Amino acid sequence: MNNDPRMRSPHLGVFAIGLAVYWPQFESLEGRLRGYLASVEERLAAWGEVTSGGLVDAPEQARHAGARLAQAQVDLVFVYTATYATSSLVLPVVQQAKAPVIVLNLQPVAALDYAAITTEEWLANCSACCVPEIGGALTRSSIPYKVVSGALFEDARAWGEIAAWCQAARAARAVREARIGFLGHTYPGMLDLYSDFTAVSGQLGSHIEVLEMDDLVARVRAASERQVQEKIDEIHALFDVAESSTDPIAAPLEPEDLAWSARVAVGLDALAADFDLSALAYYYRGLEGNENEQVTAGMIVGNSLLTARGIPCSGEGDLKNALAMLIMDRLGTGGSYTELYAMDLAEQFVLMGHDGPGHLAISDERPVLRKLKLYHGKRGFGVSVEFKVKLGPTTILGLTQRADGRLKLLVAEGESLPGPTFRIGNTNSRIRFPLDPATFVTRWSEEGPTHHCALGVGAVGEQLRRVGSLLDVPTVSLT
Asked: Looking at the whole model, is its pTM more than 0.90?
């Protein structure tokens, strides 16, 4: 069993449709179609755990197939139109399965031999024939669906799209099964960050595990010297130490600073393991240098390490952004804790970043540790992480909430550019979007976002729209 949370497979349902009246009329047709279905099942098995409803050719079989897929709790149902069949064979299956539907219009041959065609050969290749009918029936039944059309064999475009839906299903399943830790409270006054836990659980299925600072403090206290030294070694293997900075709030990194960050990181590892966390949103103000404040100030390195291994951590108590980071991570694109920093109207890019944890897997170079004598706008001092994301295509994802309480995804693709960035102990990158900086910031802001977002590598806007579709969350793309 693979315990990597990024590699947990989606549950994929599939069935084919045919018309029972054809079988006595055309002796070899049923066997051919079952062979085609077996080929589809084999391809899907590369991307998830497959449950098949078989070849459905009668209403009673449709009910049995639907019950089988419902019992398997599939994340996605693929309807393979192996030949012409009535839409009455599809509707009972998908009604019971209660999962998003993808209709596979996959023709076995690229073109028919028109001079030599027989009725049986046509029926073995008429995948497209019933797709409009199915679309009409599902639409009238208020069941959302998508269609993938192409060739059953040697069609990279069609099978690439199917693979993308399976990958999106994996990300969607990760959200529905997620256990999101909420440690402390939201940064006071950030009204955009405040989250309705019931709305999140009700719309996405995610569980919110409310944590006390005592839960973390106790685990930091329990860290052994051996664990702390092993964590120091891990940090040295992954990070460089920053050179001196012109920022007056920066200071040289001392051994005791690193040891404290390592001790807190050990405590965070235990917290994530004990509560089986998929992600973490956190913030705690502290008071006059008390222990809670010291632990909170030492969390950045440990949370960066957690994020890098698939447990994304979002500061300032931004629960919605922790979920956005989780989606990006499960798509394999990273997902770093980010906000808009500034516009460069001369070179036409937006500077994006944040103090706090970053996704180390998408750093352009080895990330850097920098000691800060204070965290602006927050209490305490300690070790922070500094890097910029890899150069090339990037995507940002925001999760926000509309006035009617519904969640909404915001997506924009851009490009990470070379060039100087801040050296103030923050992640920050130059991101150029297709829209000019002023227009981009205006349009993004007019969509009512949460001001944090998840920054990842690669152009994955289309994949994020698929995830939004599977989660039934409206998705708006700005680019």
From this structure: yes
- What per-residue confidence (pLDDT) applies to 159? 98
- Whether the pLDDT of residue 196 is over 60: the answer is yes
Instruction: Report the alpha-carbon distance of residue 452 to residue 397 in Å, rounded.
Output: 9
Q: Is the pLDDT of residue 89 over 80?
A: yes
Position 2 scores a pLDDT of: 42
Buried b or exposed e, range 294-331, using 16+ CB within 10 angstroms: bbbbbbbbbbbbbbbebbbbbbbbbbbbbbbbbbbbbb
- Kindly state the percentage of the chain with pLDDT values over 90: 86
CATH classification for the domain delimited by 5-175, as one of 1.10.1040.10, 3.40.50.2000, 2.40.50.140, 3.40.50.10940: 3.40.50.10940
Three-state SS string over the chain comes to: CCCCHHHCCCEEEEEEECCHHHCCCCCCHHHHHHHHHHHHHHHHCCCCEEEEEEEECCHHHHHHHHHHHHHCCCCEEEEECCCCCCHHHCHHHHHHHCCCEEEEEEECCCCCCCCCCCHHHHHCCCHHHHHHHHHHHHHHCCCCEEEEEEECCCCHHHHHHHHHHHHHHHHHHHHHCCEEEEEECCCCCCCCCCCCHHHHHHHHCCEEEEECHHHHHHHHHCCCHHHHHHHHHHHHHHCEECCCCCCCCEECCCHHHHHHHHHHHHHHHHHHHHCCCCEEEEECCCCCCCHHHHHHHCHHHHHHHHHHCCCCEECCCCHHHHHHHHHHHHCCCEEEEEEEEEEECCCCEEEEEECCCCCHHHECCCCEEEEECCCCCCCCCEEEEECCECCEEEEEEEEEECCCCCEEEEEEEEEEECCCCCCCCCEEEEEECCCCHHHHHHHHHHCCCCCEEEEEECCCHHHHHHHHHHHCCCEEECC
Question: Which residues belong to CATH 3.40.275.10 in the chain?
Answer: 178-477
In the chain, residues under CATH classification 3.40.50.10940 are 5-175
Rounded-to-integer distance, Cα 194 and Cα 463, Å: 27
Write down the pLDDT at residue 4.
66
Which whole number is the average pLDDT over 243-267? 86
Report yes or no: 432 and 311 within 8 Å, Cβ to Cβ. Answer: no
Give residue 250's pLDDT: 74
pLDDT of residue 1: 35
Q: Mean pLDDT across the stretch 64-93?
A: 98
Domain with residues 178-477, CATH architecture: 3-Layer(aba) Sandwich (3.40)
The rounded distance, in Å, linking the Cα atoms of 479 and 15 is 36
